[in-house]
Amino acid sequence: MEQIATIDGLPGMLKRLSRLPKTAQAEIRQAAQAIADDEASRIRAAGEASSKQSSVVAQFIKSRRDRVPAISAGGSRKTGLPSGATAGQIFFGAEFGGQGRPTTQQFRPNTGTTGYFFYPTLRADSERMIQRWLGVVNAIEREWTGG
């Protein structure tokens, strides 16, 4: 899977943040989840508008609580479809397509790693998300370290 964005110095920044008091770390996790909530909503909307399969898995796209904005998609939960397929099985076909094997003919043509809704939305929004997250982290770090 391709890397969507990079932040120079992220490992060092995360190490510094881990030295902050637990309250400050909780503030960072809360802010990161709020950013991820916003993006998960945008991705769900893109999925609902993309295709029947993507609209099925859109409900399984959610934010996760972490120090950085994190979003999960798919998973092992059943989708409720007659096939008994899990959200993860449908997600990959809905996002990247199929038609390379007899078992993937129900999906749109394969896009390689480009994707149809999840990754294009994430790529388009990554710079905005990074800037928002860095702003929050820098403010919290200044507040708690007096710098």
Structure in words:
With 147 residues, the protein is mainly alpha-helical. The chain has five helices and two strands. It has one domain (23-136). 56% of the residues lie in helices and 4% in strands. It has a two-stranded antiparallel sheet with strand order 1-2. Strand 1 (62-64) and strand 2 form a beta hairpin.
The largest β sheet comes out as:
2 strands, antiparallel
**Main sheet: which strands, in order across?**
1-2
Tell me what portion of residues adopts beta-strand conformation: under 5%
Mean pLDDT level: 91
Helix content: 55-70%
- Low-pLDDT parts are none
Secondary-structure-based class equals: mainly alpha
Given the C-alpha coordinates, what overall shape results? elongated
**What is the radius of gyration computed over CA atoms, rounded to a whole number of angstroms?**
18 Å
Extended strand count = 2
N-to-C CA distance: 38 Å
Count of individual domains: 1
Give the SSE string: HHHEEHH
**Helix segment tally:** 5
